[in-house]
Amino acid sequence: MNIAGLEFVGFNVQVDLNRAGVPLLEIVSEPDMRTGIEAAEYAAEIQRVVRYLGVSNGNMQEGSLRCDVNVSVRPLGQLEFGTKAINRAIDFEISRQALLHSQGLKDQIVQETRLWEEGAQKTVTMRKKEGLSDYRYFPEPDLPEVIIAKEYVDNIRDSLPELPEMKRRRYEKLGLSMQDLLFLANDVDVADFFDATIAKGADVKLAANWIMGDIAAYMKNEKLSINEIKLTPPELAELIASIKSGTISGKIGKEILFELLAKGGTVKGLIEEKDLVQITDPVEIEKMVDKVLAENPKQLEQYRGGKTKLQGFFAGQVMKASKGKANPGLLNKILLEKLNRS
Amino acid sequence: MLSSVQNPRLLLQCRWPHPHFLPKTLHFHTTKALHSSQTQTLSSSPSVSTSPPTSQILTIRKSLLSRQKSAVDFAEDYLNRLRRTEPQIKSFLYISDTVLREAEEIDRKIQRNEEVGPLAGVLVGVKDNICTAHMPSTAGSKILENYRPPFDATAVRKLKGNGAIIVGKTNLDEFGMGSTTEGSAYQVTANPWDLSRVPGGSSGGSAAAVSARQCVVSLGSDTGGSVRQPASFCAVVGLKPTYGRVSRYGLVAYASSLDVIGCFGSSVVDAGILLNAISGHDRLDATSSKREVPDFTSQFIAKEILEPKPLKGLRIGVIRETLDDGVDSEVISSIHTAASHLEELGCSVTEVSLPSFSLGLPAYYILASSESSSNLSRYDAIRYGNQVVADELNSLYGDSRTKGFGSEVKMRILTGTYALSAGYYDAYYKRAQQVRALVQKSFKAALDENDILISPAAPSAAYKIGEKKNDPLAMYAGDIMTVNVNLAGLPALVLPCGFVEGGSVGLPVGLQMIGAAFDEEKLLKVGHIFEQTLQCGSFVPPLVADGFAL
């Protein structure tokens, strides 16, 4: 393998040995891919797998993961690509070779390594590929053979974590949509967060929605990874449970979420500290409704005169008076009864 | 059967046409007990009519520790002899200028009663394809002219750690590719026994240097016989260890699956002590073995306390195919004599057949050339070595290699490149690997039946300089005795066993003993007893015999 890069500066050569001694795995795929996007998705899945396994950070821009693509429309040619350029480079190369064929210029398609030029959005010759006979492969005598016992392989197989494909299948069985499971399984840390949340008994769909919605948005805004936010999976599970049980409203839930994301703490602690428990006692809500109606006689008159849109105004005033804690369903029910009682 | 063809009176006499007896050499009589037990058992007294080789290393150690002679005195003896003989022999490509300073340091340590290593004060020659910091390492090639590696080979590092003094870098066929040392890009080394003859190769400089007592011991490398054949030509002990026994880190790679670093000494004991110092696992060579290294020197038994049949029960197999047509008849009878001698020592000697033996030579040349074509691709004149001025990069590579490599090297790179090319791979490289497996299997079978296999180390004694220079196939054919052992990765010991006609006093013949993998111990033990009981006069070449008094 190429452990060092050579750079020729005139007749001086600079040797970059930054990869020396780093273990390297080469995967050669079968020619199974037909389009750029298939190849790009294959590379992305390899990236997920190495990250799931924790064997590499898989960062292409750092050279932790590299790809060489062979494109062949009959005769062989080759090109190299970067991350998102995979798709475009392959499609470009397919059209380039197809065009040469259609122009009767197939002689110009030679076995070579081509480079993707991002600026010009095209491939150019990097180096001509040597013919097979020039490699003159033979077993390297300085590297003794390594005999790997079946037991050793089995041990590794048994110790493998759940891989991306297995995870996606499991999420599918949990009832998640395709969009949800692709998002959650894409990043092993996000998937672990999700798994830990549902392990605490959280509703699967609700947990997915929270993570993909407000939590993802927060991470994106703050440029944080899921491991850097203060919210923990048990607290997310607690939050979901508190809303489901009616202890707090969805609106309050969102407020608490942002507190938890930024500062941490517990759902129970925040509810107590801020006195956020939802008011579900009809008598208490009725009192607040009565008070609001009494304070706004003019609007009440207008409502009863046919301006029923004002119901929203009253609801808002009552919610404000309850500091947002009134159960909205109960509030509206009681409010309507009172408004329509003439 | 073997002994029946011999005249019983000759059993303990080796054949040589013009015996020359050394003026009685100077021997030390122990005045003081030594530290280690093995040195006690080895302190031999001079024999009366013949003089089996004594260990120079143990003699030096004894003298240093008893303060009879200083390390500087020893170093001066060797350096004087080196200066006197080097213009004729030309075994060194580089001679260290710090030898006396290092010897002084050892003397100071001894003065202060500090521990000194087992090789303290021992002058070691190092084949120039073994890397040494602060000294050039050219591998005999122009492409590495003036190259100074920034590190010591593991074997060299271990030698230094044991107190050895590296006296210099010895001549070789370029990259070890050759059997005469005429393939050096720098100079031709002469055989100390007859200056008109080759010392063998590729480690010809290391063998000649020990033979001419220019240094005590030396390191060589053996890819297809490059330690054993020159040992045979120069009448020194050459030891090719099991593949993996000695780290190859810092050995300029020729054929990585065959290369080993080996030892030269003027006695089996010295070769064994040297092997002791350089053996062992090295994390810098993935092919070096993790096997425990036994104390090879614990096997040596002093001649005086040997039983009448000290090798009783040992099974020796004479490889039939090595005593066939194409092998010098005098060499064949030397080996028969050696076999008889082993029988006298109590061994049971039988003939053994290795049917795949003749296939080893072509298989070896394909594999070694293939591996070398890959290994030598590193000489791009950019990372190291001489660079020619060129307008663009490809010419820089091409012109530097054209100018830097000699013709034998180019021939092997071309052969190897061809053998590995698509379409030819199956016919050449793959078949050669299959032959290699066959050779390994047949050695295994033969060594299940026998403790040690014996053969000549080369089909002839040393030949004339220039004789095979333009006939590579004839030169390659000379490797028939040794290449199979490299293909099988086995250890082998070559030691002088007799003489044939030639030169002014006869030319030495070497006996090859092949052992099971990682059983150097047995080879050294048997080799030592063989050497100490052989009634053969001296294997010190006449060139230095008069002045050699150790």
From TrEMBL, chain A:
Report the transmembrane regions from the record: none
Query: Could you tell me which InterPro entries the record lists for this protein?
Result: Asn/Gln-tRNA_amidoTrfase_suB/E (IPR017959), Asn/Gln-tRNA_Trfase_suB/E_cat (IPR006075), Asn/Gln_amidotransferase (IPR018027), Asn/Gln_tRNA_amidoTrase-B-like (IPR003789), GatB (IPR004413), GatB_C_1 (IPR042114), GatB_Yqey_C_2 (IPR023168), Gln-tRNA_amidoTrfase_suB_CS (IPR017958)
Q: Which superkingdom is the protein from?
A: Eukaryota
Record keywords: ATP-binding, Ligase, Nucleotide-binding, Protein biosynthesis
Alphabetical list of SUPFAM superfamilies matching this protein? GatB/YqeY motif, Glutamine synthetase/guanido kinase
Give the catalysed reaction(s), semicolon-separated. Answer: L-glutamyl-tRNA(Gln) + L-glutamine + ATP + H2O = L-glutaminyl-tRNA(Gln) + L-glutamate + ADP + phosphate + H(+); L-aspartyl-tRNA(Asn) + L-glutamine + ATP + H2O = L-asparaginyl-tRNA(Asn) + L-glutamate + ADP + phosphate + 2 H(+)
GO biological process terms, semicolon-separated? glutaminyl-tRNAGln biosynthesis via transamidation; translation
Under Gene Ontology molecular function, one entry of this record is: glutaminyl-tRNA synthase (glutamine-hydrolyzing) activity
- Tell me the ranges covered by the Asn/Gln amidotransferase domain, including all copies: 192-339
* Short name of any one Pfam family annotated for the protein: GatB_Yqey
Q: Which PANTHER family does the UniProt record give?
A: GLUTAMYL-TRNA GLN AMIDOTRANSFERASE SUBUNIT B MITOCHONDRIAL AND PROKARYOTIC PET112-RELATED (PTHR11659), GLUTAMYL-TRNA(GLN) AMIDOTRANSFERASE SUBUNIT B, MITOCHONDRIAL (PTHR11659:SF0)
Question: What does this protein's UniProt record list under function?
Answer: Allows the formation of correctly charged Asn-tRNA(Asn) or Gln-tRNA(Gln) through the transamidation of misacylated Asp-tRNA(Asn) or Glu-tRNA(Gln) in organisms which lack either or both of asparaginyl-tRNA or glutaminyl-tRNA synthetases. The reaction takes place in the presence of glutamine and ATP through an activated phospho-Asp-tRNA(Asn) or phospho-Glu-tRNA(Gln).
Subunit relationships = Heterotrimer of A, B and C subunits.
The entry sums up its family as follows: Belongs to the GatB/GatE family. GatB subfamily.
* Record protein name field: Asn/Gln amidotransferase domain-containing protein
TrEMBL record, chain B:
Q: What is its EC number?
A: 6.3.5.7
> Does the UniProt entry include the keyword Glycoprotein?
no
User: By its UniProt entry, which Pfam families does this protein fall under?
Assistant: Amidase
Q: Which GO terms describe its cellular component?
A: chloroplast stroma; glutamyl-tRNA(Gln) amidotransferase complex; mitochondrion
Q: Which InterPro entries match?
A: Amidase, Amidase_CS, Amidase_dom, AS_sf, GatA
Among NCBIfam families, the record links this protein to: gatA
List GO BP terms, alphabetically.
Answer: glutaminyl-tRNAGln biosynthesis via transamidation; mitochondrial translation
- Functional note: Allows the formation of correctly charged Gln-tRNA(Gln) through the transamidation of misacylated Glu-tRNA(Gln) in chloroplasts and mitochondria. The reaction takes place in the presence of glutamine and ATP through an activated gamma-phospho-Glu-tRNA(Gln).
The top EC class, named as a word, is ligase
* Signal peptide positions on this chain: none
Identify a single GO molecular function assigned to this protein. Answer: glutaminyl-tRNA synthase (glutamine-hydrolyzing) activity
Name by which UniProt lists this protein: Glutamyl-tRNA(Gln) amidotransferase subunit A, chloroplastic/mitochondrial
The record's family statement is: Belongs to the amidase family. GatA subfamily.
Q: Which organism is it from?
A: Nyssa sinensis
The active site consists of 127, 202, 226
Indicate where this protein resides in the cell: Mitochondrion; Plastid, Chloroplast stroma
**Main location group:** mitochondrion
Q: Which reaction does it catalyse?
A: L-glutamyl-tRNA(Gln) + L-glutamine + ATP + H2O = L-glutaminyl-tRNA(Gln) + L-glutamate + ADP + phosphate + H(+)
Domain Amidase intervals: 76-524
Q: How does it assemble?
A: Subunit of the heterotrimeric GatCAB amidotransferase (AdT) complex, composed of A, B and C subunits.
Record's miscellaneous remark? This protein may be expected to contain an N-terminal transit peptide but none has been predicted.
UniProtKB keywords: ATP-binding, Chloroplast, Ligase, Mitochondrion, Nucleotide-binding, Plastid, Protein biosynthesis
